[in-house]
Amino acid sequence: MQTVYLVASGDMRLSANRKCEATQAAMEAQIVAAVKRAGARIKRAHPYDPVKQHGFIDSQKHGIEVFHNIPAGAPVVVAEAVWQHSHHVLPGLMTHHGPILTLANWSGMWPGLVGMLNLNGCLTKAGVKYSTLWSEDFDDDFFRAGLRKWLDSGYVKHKTPHVRAFSTVKVPSGPARIGARVAQELWQHKAIMGVFDEGCMGMYNAIIPDDLLAATGVFKERLSQSALYARMLTVTDEEACAVLDWLRAKGMTFKLGNDPATELTEAQVLQQCKMYIAAVRMADQFGCAAVGIQYQIGLIDLCPASDLAEGLLNNMERPPVYHEETGKVLFEGEALPHFNEADECAGLDALVTYRLWRRLGYPPENTLHDLRWGRHYSSPSDGTSTALDDFVWVFEISGAAPAAHFAGGYAGATSERQPPMYFAQGGGTLKGVSKPGHIVWSRVFIDGGRLKCDLGLGEAVQLPDAETEERLRLTTYEWPIMHAVLKGVTRDQMMARHKANHIQVVYAPDEATAQRGLFAKAAAMHELGLEVTFCGVPRV
Questions:
Q1: Average pLDDT over residues 216-224
Q2: 539 pLDDT exceeds 90?
Q3: What is the pLDDT of residue 540?
Q4: Which of these, 55, 92, 210, 377, could form a disulfide with 48 (CB 3.0-4.6 Å)?
């Protein structure tokens, strides 16, 4: 009987791994049963640790040790029920000679699909051959057929008829000229991307090699989170209070409590305001056109999360930040594009999108989200929401979502404490429900040593309050959410093609301008040297 080795990459944080252990174990039991039905058997490559109280690979060191004991040519399943840090298993997978299958559940609360998509992006960048499958119960026809094919041949490939190369699409001349001009200006004048520590949570796919990035006219300023923290210490309490007062005057709600261990406190929010001011001042000092903070690692031991600061940076209307000596308002009237988790692929995308949308005269605020989860939604209009019969994705990210995307702007936004499981020092998010409207979505990624860009059209839709509430409770309640329908792309096509856990979104005024922006952005990315692919067939 064929033996398949199973590994499970986890978080580096003990609290997260302990909380997620039961869900991972339940999923693995389903996988063991599915593999057995297919005529093979599972051997777990690393045991449950009774001291740590979980069975995850929780460090790169641990992962290397595990793979030393897996036969070089054996089939390996990477089973993910939850978020994971890809570098825990990358060294082993990059040198493994046997078939590799990445496999995830379909759950919003336990986002294995998010962790798997990140790992897939990392493997794609590394040039590692792998297959991928996903399932709600690991007993559906799609999963069983795919598993059988992988066990028999060592590889399973999914159909992606929604994909069209840039060269096969007739891009209208007007948008093409605008996109090319913005790209040429970027390359000629150059831009600096400030990166506050690379490689957040082992996201190898989120690091653009310098030579590839430089070819687009963008260069990295490698900044330190410790320097950001030090700069926070120079911001006065009065300056922080002014930011908080500005937000409250705009109608933003802060859900405050008294217990800093479990609740959001005003002291935490004021530290976040100091981080916002410090980030703007450092961006000005180093001439950064965009910045990315590695918010989940390092700084969580020193101060509250960066989420609030990130969302403020990405909004054109935001609290003023003054130069310490001259009193000049920094980046006045502009957003300072921020890429969450220091994802440089999202950073390049955000910068190009911001400048292009400014040229087109569209609202330029844009953000990444996690491609978190989704399900089909069917309902007639109830007078407050649109009639729908489609697959509606949940896009969520704790930081970087701008208030301009929310119904009601700042007045429709709340700040709620990040889960203590991840953030012992607390800190609030910038939470809101994205307003209905037409969007352009995209993802920059690395494949075959080249920068590439997938992009398509979508629509942020309005769902009934009860459905929104349920989706929030089935995912991460404290985070901003977008209900998204992707045009011409099914759920499984998206999963088969997408090479990251992140997806970039920007609004357009209407369907026609979204189409125009799509073509202009494709032309801009093409002019910068990226290999561009349309996902979903654009109308010309």
A1: 97
A2: no
A3: 55
A4: 55
- Token digits for 254? 């802060």
Q: Which CATH number do you get for residue 92?
A: 3.40.50.10940
How far apart, in whole angstroms, are the C-alpha atoms of residue 140 and residue 138?
A: 6
Report the alpha-carbon distance of residue 143 to residue 493 in Å, rounded.
14
**268 and 322 both lie in a single domain:** yes
Q: Is 154 helix (H, G, I), strand (E, B) or coil?
A: coil
- The first and second tokens of residue 441, run together, are 């979505």
Whether the Cβ atoms of residue 433 and residue 274 lie closer than 8 Å to each other: no
Tell whether 162 is covered by a domain.
no
Angle (deg, nearest 10), helices 225-232 and 266-286: 120
Which band of pLDDT confidence, cut at 50, 70 and 90, is reported for residue 538?
confident
Q: Do 140 and 204 reside in the same domain of the chain? A: no
AA letter at 370: D
**Of 194, 123, 136, 129, the residue nearest 156 (C-alpha):** 129
- Is residue 163, in this structure, part of any structural domain at all? no
Same domain, 236 and 143: no
> Is pLDDT of 477 > 90?
yes
Of residues 334, 345, 103, 40, the one with CA closest to residue 209: 345
pTM for this prediction: 0.96
375-378-380 Cα angle (round to 5): 150
- Looking at residue 109, the DSSP 8-state letter turns out to be S
CA distance to 28, 75, 134, 144, 164, per residue, from 36 (Å)? 12, 15, 17, 11, 38
> Which domain range does residue 57 map to?
2-153
Q: 147 and 182 share a domain?
A: no
- How many domains is the chain partitioned into structurally? 2
CB count in 10 Å sphere of residue 2: 12
The pLDDT of residue 383 is 67
Residue 285 covered by a domain: yes
Per residue in 7-19, pLDDT (tens digit) is: 999 999 899 999 9
323 in the same domain as 207: yes
